Structure formats: structure tokens, C-alpha cells
Amino acid sequence: MEDVIPLLEIEDLSVEVEERQVLFSVNLAIGAGETHVLLGPNGSGKTTLLNTIMGLPAYRVTSGRILFGGTDITPMPIDERAKLGIGMAFQRPPAVRGVKLRQLIHVAGDGGGMEERLSGLVRNLDLDRLMDRDVNMGFSGGETKRSEMAQLLAQAPAITLFDEPESGVDLDNIAVVGEAMNALLKPGTVAERKGAGLIVTHTGHILEYVNADVGHVLLNGKLACQGNPLDLLEEIGRSGYQKCVECALCDQ
Amino acid sequence: MRSVTRDQEIRELAEGARDVRAGLGPDVDLTRFAEAIEQGRVDSMDDLERQLKEAALRVGIDASGHGRSGSYVQVDRSAVYEAVQTSYEDRIEVMSVGHALELYDGLPEHWWRLVSPGKDKYTAYAALHETEGYFMRVRAGERIEDPIQSCLLTSENNVNQNVHNIVIVEDGAEAHIITGCTIHPDVEEGIHVGISEFYIGKGAKLTFTMIHNWSQRFDVRPRSAISVAEDGVFVNNYIMLEPVKSLQTFPVAHLEGARSRAIFNSIIYGLEDSRIDLGSDTILEGEGSRSEAVTRAISADRSTIHSRGRLTARSDTAKAHLDCRGILFSDEAVQYAVPELVSDGAPRAELSHEAAISPIAEDEIHYIMARGVPKDEAISMITRGFVDIDIPGLPEPLRRSIDEAISATAAEAL
Ligand SMILES: Nc1ncnc2c1ncn2[C@@H]1O[C@H](COP(=O)(O)OP(=O)(O)OP(=O)(O)O)[C@@H](O)[C@H]1O
Ligand SMILES: [Mg+2]
Hints:
The complex is a heterodimer of chains A (252) and B (414). With 252 residues, chain A is an alpha/beta fold. Chain A has a single domain, classed as P-loop containing nucleotide triphosphate hydrolases (Rossmann fold). Chain A is built from 7 helices and 10 strands. A 6-stranded mixed sheet of chain A has the order 6-7-8-3-9-10, sandwiched between helices. Chain A has a 4-stranded antiparallel sheet with strand order 2-1-4-5. In chain A, β7, α6 (171-185) and β8 form a beta-alpha-beta unit. Chain A is globular. Chain B is of the alpha/beta class and 414 residues long. Chain B has helices spanning 4-17, 50-58, 97-103, 121-128, 362-369, 375-387, 396-412; strands spanning 34-35, 70-75, 78-84, 92-96, 134-138, 148-154, 159-169, 174-183, 190-200, 205-213, 218-228, 233-240, 246-249, 252-255, 261-270, 275-284, 290-299, 304-313, 319-328, 334-343, 350-357. In chain B, strands 1, 4, 5, 7, 9, 11, 13, 14, 16, 18 and 20 form an 11-stranded mixed sheet that branches. In chain B, strands 3-2-6-8-10-12-15-17-19-21 form a 10-stranded mixed sheet, with helices on one face. In chain B, a hairpin with a 2-residue loop joins β2 (70-75) and β3. In chain B, α5 (362-369) packs across α6. At the A-B interface, α2 and α3 of A face α5 and α6 of B. Magnesium ion binds at residues 46-47, 91, 163 of chain A.
């Protein structure tokens, strides 16, 4: 009997932002080493779900709970969740004046030897010119995403939440970002075990680089269906979200 | 020989200003303080009384003199130590200003030429109770790699330490001066009045770093002015991280020469009941002159900070910028950011300012926390970053103590 408890379990989660309900009774379970994809139109609540899992205080849980490795983390502050093994690549991370990317990578890795362990990966991320700049300050779209990847590689979370990792990134850079994601998700590079992931994507381009097990569609704050991620993307591409959730592909 | 008529002139100007209050900052009753007393000379900085020496270390002074081209130490009214490293002997002069006045006939071109003794009661006091200060000259064309250091110490309670410093950087020369001003831990009350006149020659560059470390009942009134010739550069770094009763200073930089530049960097930290009124006043006269003033002010406890900056353009091709940012960590603190831009008959000059007083953004704190950093550490990282303005040549121990001081209050403020 191994891994009967999912790594991340979201039970009946409802969330309010600025007094407005955005998520409605969401249920989702991600097992250790599994990679899930979260699809859904703009404003459907994808970022809200990820931010709530990370524990950002603007996202108020009005019902339900979030379990990580069987522990209820719903009341836990952000840093403790990160320490437990939850990491997030932000969709639009804030610029922090005066804090260098190098410092953030250093603290993310808990001061550890990320340099040796992952020097090759970091070299591919081509961060030399960014390391001593204020983090995200004037970074281009691709630079922002690469900087997020470097921080996560240092942090080596058990589950990583990727919020649109490929948005604003050109094709060459998607390959680089994809390689970093694979390092986080596959066993052996960042950790011995396979990492888990939850990837938000609109285009699915990133799935040309990263294998995903399950896809979910979020519509108006509700998880509408789940299925094979590539099939779902194809269906959405063909007939739009509304049709997609009505189709027979999903196990409703 | 000092000129009798010139001395008379200085005295008359001072007499006229005896009771003239400064335009800024709280008024200090100077009659409460005695004149500073004489102190004996020491053979080396190591011979300074232990607590004085420790105080000096905290303001960036290296007691061994290693890595310093020259040193000057004053205790109360007396120059107790001066030295120039052998390899710098023909390149710089470091001595007490009293000695320089004797040696150079009263320094007729430099003594009270940029700061007027008639400015206010503090300059008047310094002129009428002349004591000491340092004289530093960097010879033309000399590049002095190791900083020159000076330390002005007050060891007696209830005295007025007034010093008058003259710094001359001759044409094409380059140097860094580190000045630490502080007091013996037993000193409770007192006042420091510092007159400083800086002459930056053509193509010369001076980086002047001043670290102040006072106490809750000590008043401080520096009066400084700088003149910068063609292609000259003056960089002023000012750091104050400890409480003070009141400090008011508004140094004036005259950018006279074409393409002359002045850069003011200040890090000020308002603690306890400190009343701090600090800024810089740059007058851009030279063609193509440039200036930048960057201030980072942190207010804690019940402190009041006025963070000022004034840029006056008199040349059409002048360009200057002020950057004042502040954070309040206490709801009993008050902070004023007072940028002032003056274009005086210079329609094409470009003057700008950014002033902001705002808290640390929550989303930045959360972002750093998402990397596993506790909230208090995330706040202190951001606060340290806030004051981490690029200060060239800052000694490492000093950089560390800035870090420590800032982290401590930032964490406390939670
Ligand atoms: N911090 C916030 N403050 C106010 N409203 C918010 C906040 N975060 C999310 N919302 C609102 O919640 C709703 C869902 O937003 P969310 O960012 O979760 O959507 P999304 O699915 O990630 O969309 P996109 O694909 O455009 O990124 C939107 O109406 C959004 O305006
Ligand atoms: Mg989003």
C-alpha cells in the first residue's frame, strides 16, 4: 500500500476575491508524480485556484479545504506551504526593487548548492545577465518566465503550479522553459522522485515539451470536466469551451 | 601670516549672525553648551581610549590605518592624530586645519569662502570659537586608491564641538574620503557644528562618504558647501542609522564648471524621537552640468524626517534629477519628502524628481514568501533592497552594519 493519499487534495473549495465568489466547490486530487493541466477561458478562475493553493491572502477560502500529503494546509501561511513542497511559477510576478534575482534563487534553494547541482540547467536558462538585476524589473516576457524556472529549480518543490509558463515566450524559449519544467517533473534531476505539477495553459504549446497525465476544464469557477489533456485541447480548439464540456470525451 | 583684515571681516560677519536662527530644523540654544576641551595627542589610533576607538570603528574608521592613505582624528577640540602613509607622502596632505592655516597664511582662498560665517548662529559660533578640523589636499593629477579617513569624536558631556574642514582636490586628482562622526558612549548631551568647504578642481573627482552616529540627546548642525570646476565630480554619500536629538543640514553644491557633476546619496534612518532635516541643494551653473540626488529614508518610532532636495538650473544645458523614497514603519512617525526644482532663466534645462512615501507592497512580500521565506525575512530583504543604493567604495563592515540595522527595525516593525 503506497501513496494511497494523493499529494494534493482539494475538497469542495470555494474562494472569494474582493468579496466576490470566484471558485465554486472545486474538487481536485493530484497524486505524487502526476502532472495535471488546467484549461479554461480568461477569468474562469485558474490563477485564483493556483494562488489559493499557494496561500495568497487575497484569496479567501469560504468553504472546503486543501490537503497536502494528508495535512490540512488551508490556514497555513505561504512560506510554510513552500517549505512543505509547494512551488509556483507566477503568471505575472511582481518586480521587487532592490532584490536581485541571485538573492531570490539563493533563498529559494535555502542557501543550498543549486549552482553545482543544476549549473547546466541554469546555464541553459541564460540568466547571467539577469542574476544581478532587480528581480523582474524590466525583464522581458521570456526573461520573467526563465527567472521563475530558475527559482523553482532551486526550490525543488514536490508539486509545482505553473501559471501559463509559455505565455509571452518565443519558440526557442518555450523549449528552454519546457526543459526546466521537465527537470522539475521528472525523477533524477531536481529530486529523486518524480515531481508533480499543475499547469495552466491556453495554447497547450508547452505540452509539446512536457507530458501531462490529466486535463481539467474550469468554467465560471467550476471544474466542468476532466480527460486526456491533448484530447481536451483539440476539442476546445475545434468547438470552443462550451461545446467541449458538453462533449462525451470527458468523464463528467 | 593670516590677514588681520580678513579675520576682522570674518568676525564681523559672524557677530552679525550670532542670534540668527537657521531657516530649517529646530532651534538649539547654544548657550547651554560649554566650549569643547583640549585633549592630548596619541601616537597611534590604537592608543585611543577603548570606548572611543570602538565608537570610531562603528563609523567606518580603521584604527590600524591599513588600506587608508591618510588618517585624521580629532577628539573634542583637539587634533590628536594625523598620518599619511609613506607611499602617499608627496601626493596628499592630511593635517589639522589649525596647522594648515599657519602653514598657508590663513588659507585666504579657501577659509570661509564657500560657507559664510554670517549664515546663521551655528556658522557664527564656529567662526567666533575657532578650534580645529581637518585640512586635506590631494595634489594635481594624483589618483589616490586608498581612502583618506577622518574621525571626529566628542568625548565630553555638554560641550559644543565645532570643527571646520577644508578639502581641496586639485585638477585631475581623484580620492575617496571617509569621515566618521560620533561620540563616546558616556556622552549624553552636546552639539556638533561642522563647517566643511570642498574645492573640486578641473577634471578632479572626490567621493566623500560620511557616517554619522549620535545619540538621543545630541544635536548636529553640519554646514557644508562644495564648488566643482570644469569636468569635476563630487560624490557625497551620507549615512545615519542611529538616533539623534536633531540634525539639520542642507549642503550646497555649486556646479560652476562646464560638465561638472554632483551626486548625493543618502540613507537616513529615523529612530526614537529623532528630528532629522536633511537634503542637498545643487546649483547648476556650468554648461552641461549634471546632478543626481538619491535619498532613502526610513521612519520608525516617533521620529520626524524632512527629506529635501533642491535643484537650481542656471545653465540651459543643465540636467538633474532627484529621487526621494521613504517608508514609514510606525504610525507615530512623520516623514516629509520635499523636492524642489528651480529653473532660473534656463528654459532648456531638464530638471525632474520622483518622490514617494509608500509601504512595502504586499504582493512583493508574498512573492518572496512563495520561495519559502518567512514574512519578517521577506520584509527585511525588501527593506534592505530599498536602501541598497549603489554606494561606491563603502567599506564592507559598514555595508554589513547598514544591513543589520535595517533588518532589525524592519523585523521589529511587524
Ligand atoms: N487579486 C484580485 N483582485 C480582484 N479580483 C481578482 C483578483 N484575482 C482574481 N480576480 C478576479 O477573479 C476572476 C478570476 O480571475 P483569474 O485570474 O483567476 O482568472 P484566470 O482563469 O486565471 O484568467 P486568465 O486566463 O485571463 O489568466 C476574474 O474576474 C478576476 O478579475
Ligand atoms: Mg490567470
